Description:
Blueprint: H1 12-23, H2 34-43, H3 49-62, H4 66-71, H5 74-80, H6 87-105, H7 118-126, H8 133-142, H9 153-162, H10 171-181, H11 187-200, H12 219-224
Helix pairs in contact: 1-11, 2-3, 2-8, 5-6, 7-8, 9-11
Amino acid sequence: MNREVNEVPESIPYIIQNLRAVYGVPELERDLDPLNALIETILSQSTTNINSRRAFESLKRRFPTWEAARRARTASIEEAIRSGGLAKQKSVIIKNILNEIYAKLGSFDLSFLKQMPLEEARDFLLSFKGVGPKTVACVLLFSCERPVFPIDTHIFRIARRLGLIPEKGSDAEAHRMMEAMLPEERFYEVHVNLIRHGRTICRPQNPLCEACCIVDYCRYYRERV
């Protein structure tokens, strides 16, 4: 992606640096299977990491192969992932995705996403119903190490409070804006550290601004005080 100097706010290097000083530099887990990452990300929607991980492990115990899951009744998938919440909706999405992937590829091997041109990889994943920009970005960053930046609810909140993205706008536009202003080699680090910051300090209600390591760059704080 082409970046121009005027696209990058002066605060970005300091925000990255201050978050790193507090939360460290997370390491990206290697050799994640893209389809595993896709299903795990779907299961993570609107629930905690603990619940989504429990649901994914339950799904894999019930169906050791993705072919077994594809052939299963939707109700059986729903039962297996119940601990993750929204099981009825997520089971339909998972079943449909597995069917569509198999219909398109004749297998469940998504490793080609690691070499496919980035925009084509995005479009391939976005073609599945129930898969949005955040899910696509998680799969491509976490399992394919592609230069994409996932934005979850915490990151949306913090980026808006910092004034980095507009209060209103599409998910796709927000992803493009954040990718344009952040250095690619820091995507994973900033993604994880902003989520940590959103869970502990920059909370939806009653944010702990007095304990915030990036408060000096926060429009929300300036307007609030």
